[in-house]
Amino acid sequence: MKSINPVFLLAFWSLAFISCSPAKVNFERPVDTSSKNIIYQNKTTYVFKDQNLSFSNQFNGARLNGVKQLNDSLYRLYFKPENTPINNSSYYAFDVQSNIQQTLYLQFSYPPPYIHRYVPKIYRDGVWENSSSEQVDTTGTYYQLILPLKGKARVAAQEIQNSQDVANWVYDNSQAPYVQWKTIGKSKLGRPLWVMDIAQGNPRGKPIVVFLTRQHPPEVTGYLAFKSFMETLLEENDLSTAFLEQYHVLAFPMVNPDGVDLGHWRHNAGGIDTNRDWSEYRQPEVRAIVKYIEKTLRKEKANLVLGLDFHSTWYDVFYTNKERDKTPYPTLLEQWFRLLEKEIPHYSVNEKASNSTQPVSKGWLLYRHSAVGVTYEIGDETPRDSIRLIGETSARALMELLVKK
Question: Where is 366: in which H helix or E strand?
Fold first, then answer.
């Protein structure tokens, strides 16, 4: 048997590797997304026996770096980010348990220059509620929560929606035969990365639309809008059926599971903002998603036409790309926004259009695939019933417009 030249083998495998690697996209302001060290919080329960009280961060999605007792009822709670520099998304989540009825005064402490951002949400008896204005004192140096308590409560910047919560939701919404729930890779710490691959009938040649969320761990309101949007898209009715017969949907419900479960302020376990890695794909989460999208495009001989990336910020806003003429649907967003304003009472679309100069997902959608790209942002404190309405209405309006294309 004739031996194979090792030089040929090396060249063959090098070409194979290159052909499977997604093409890089150049941005005006590149970002170094090489992994950086993070600081892990010490998972523990802080016990104050004399006060019949304890604080804990021993659950996925928690963030609590220390507790100091100042007097019988006053406690200073310390919260630190996973690394710096980082956005001011000062995240916190902890359990507090009291064996007696007492009123606690909890001071929230962040390292400078970071300040308090989120209104505390309190989970008791299976229900999340916003803390009331009477429970908050902002007159001193520290943000202070006044918490009457007997028993156990969970206090968090946003409702906890960790990887298990998301897995439960995906399972509940992947029972239809045309929804495939797949693991497409693993995060830096080995957590599964999922896609909901959705198409009625043969997907070959169908235009592909992409929906993704939770690039940034605390951005739960964006995820809540994503849930409402996807549940509407998966309803069994004529509109959804027509849409899914015409389009192939790839939905990624948890881009950054490590960051979510570790209670990070913004980054993944590689210490990187994944929404700055849509150029070099150095982080495993973005790399796996891009590979799956582009593999599907090749396999199905299809085009990527639209992508929505669900986030949260201080207020509701749609960040769009200015450049639209080269996309398949140059007027889609104008039509979509008009429909939203028509269908949602007293609603005004807040659009901010710009050229993506940094490697974010909406820029990747445009520059790599000439697709319509939107960063779909929901406000931190947007009422939850409003989020559901916005998600439902935006899904229906988008389907109505796309089935006519």
Answer: helix 361-369
